[in-house]
Specification:
Structural class: mainly alpha
Order of helices and strands: HHH
Helix content: 40-55%
Shape: globular
Number of helices: 3
Length: 80
Amino acid sequence: MCVTPPHGLLQGWGCAYRSLQTLCSWFLLQHYTSVATPGHRQIQETLVALDDKPASFVGSSKWIGAIELRCARESERERG
């Protein structure tokens, strides 16, 4: 279940960012990849580079969903 921390600590960040980071971290810990776990900005930059989002998306607090999560993960797999 996705719960926003008190006092708006995430300021608009959604669960898919954290889900992607959890997946990437698990793959790294299992030695399936050597690619570091991406931060929010890196995830956004990846989606912009893939032409999935406009340049204005980087640095925003816009949420991503399962489709974007998959695109970003596939891109990270290709690098690692």
